[in-house]
Amino acid sequence: MDSQTMCRCAELPNVFVGNDENNPFGETLTELEWAPQRWATLNQCPDCQQLWHIDIAKQNDIGVCAKIASRQDWQQLDTTNLKIQLMVQNHGGITNDTCQWKQCNQLCVKGLAFCPSHAYFEMDIKQ
Ligand SMILES: [Zn+2]
Ligand SMILES: [Zn+2]
User: Fold this and answer.
1) With 70 as the cut, is the pLDDT of residue 1 above it?
2) What's the domain count of the chain?
3) Ligand 2 centroid vs 70 CA: distance in angstroms?
4) What pLDDT is recorded for position 6?
5) What is the pLDDT of residue 60?
6) How many angstroms is it from 97 CA to the middle of ligand 2?
7) What's the superkingdom here (predicted)?
8) Which of 3, 6, 55, 117 is a good FRET partner for 12, with 20 to 30 A between their CA atoms?
9) Is 67 contained in some domain?
10) Distance, CA of 15 to CA of 23 (rounded, Å)
11) β-pairing, 94-98 with 107-109?
């Protein structure tokens, strides 16, 4: 009956591009923490209790929104890892091929000859 009040958390991906000024949540989330020194906010969905990390908008940087398992996880969150996840997701995931980087035996990002961290940090593939 009140399906218009149902949240979209379950259907949203675990990580996606967005920030505090540009995200699909509107005013629906409750802000739990605001950490300007980390350019980060922690928010909670009042419907399903899902925690969401949302980057504070920053010039020349793609922001990320991400599902967070617990408040403690958020305290230790490394947003670079989220950006790597996002890049992998944009490329369609991981293949069974081995990274071409010398002595790296991680699996490749789809369409690339390198694993997520070598693609991101060494080949500068950020998206
Ligand atoms: Zn929700
Ligand atoms: Zn590698």
Assistant:
1) no
2) 2
3) 29
4) 82
5) 82
6) 11
7) Bacteria
8) 117
9) yes
10) 12
11) antiparallel
Q: Does residue 35 sit within a domain?
A: yes
pLDDT of residue 4: 57
Whether 112 and 69 map to the same domain: the answer is no
Q: Is residue 83 part of a domain?
A: no
| Ligand 1 centroid from CA 91, angstroms | 27
What would the two tokens of residue 51 be?
Answer: 């925690």
Q: Within this chain, do residues 102 and 71 fall inside the same structural domain, yes or no?
A: no
Tokens found for residue 36: 């300007």
For 55-107, the pLDDT digits (tens) are: 999 988 889 999 999 999 999 999 999 999 999 999 999 999 999 999 999 99
What integer pLDDT is reported at residue 119 of this predicted model?
98
> Considering the domain boundaries, does residue 103 fall inside one?
yes
64-68 and 51-55: which strand pairing? Answer: antiparallel
